[in-house]
């Protein structure tokens, strides 16, 4: 349990059954979920989605995830709070996270970056194809 949220923090397996990278998309806008899920799957990724921060944190701490695309303004647990809690988990603290947000020039950007996000992307400035290119730079 991290700050009252149940999590299952078991060590990550060394290899997955599939060679596909698993992307956890945490986004509450159904249109964007559909658009990004379709693009990522077309690019060969396995995509799992969560519509709020509690669901996202639970999945991230109980399943193998290669990268997280994280909206910051999400219900139940903000992206900032999710990041703070994820970074407390020894087995998951190094999962690469890309913040995908509508918050341009936000005061929160500095705080989000302090949690080690790989990129801070304003949604309106990037196409899904550009986001995939950026993701590939950070996937090992």
Automatic annotation (TrEMBL):
Keyword entries, A-Z: Phosphoprotein
Classification via CDD domains: REC_OmpR
Domain of life: Bacteria
Positions of post-translational 4-aspartylphosphate modification: 71
GO biological process terms on file: phosphorelay signal transduction system
InterPro entries membership: Bact_response_regulator (IPR050595), CheY-like_superfamily (IPR011006), Sig_transdc_resp-reg_receiver (IPR001789)
Taxonomic source organism: Candidatus Woesebacteria bacterium GW2011_GWB1_38_5
The name this protein goes by in its record: Response regulator receiver protein
Listed SUPFAM superfamilies: CheY-like
Pfam families per the UniProt record, alphabetical: Response_reg
């Amino acid at each position: 349990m991290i700050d009252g949220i149940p999590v299952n923090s078991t060590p990550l397996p060394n290899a997955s059954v599939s060679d596909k990278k698993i992307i956890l998309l945490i986004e509450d806008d159904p249109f964007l979920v559909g658009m990004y899920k379709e693009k990522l799957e077309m690019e060969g990724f396995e995509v799992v989605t969560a519509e709020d921060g509690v669901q996202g944190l639970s999945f991230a701490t109980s399943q193998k995830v290669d990268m997280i695309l994280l909206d910051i303004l999400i219900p139940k647990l903000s992206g900032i709070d999710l990041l703070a809690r994820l970074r407390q988990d020894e087995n998951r603290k190094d999962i690469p996270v890309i913040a995908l947000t509508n918050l341009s020039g936000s005061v929160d950007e500095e705080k989000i970056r302090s949690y080690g996000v790989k990129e801070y992307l304003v949604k309106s400035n990037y196409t899904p194809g550009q986001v995939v290119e950026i993701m590939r730079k950070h996937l090992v």
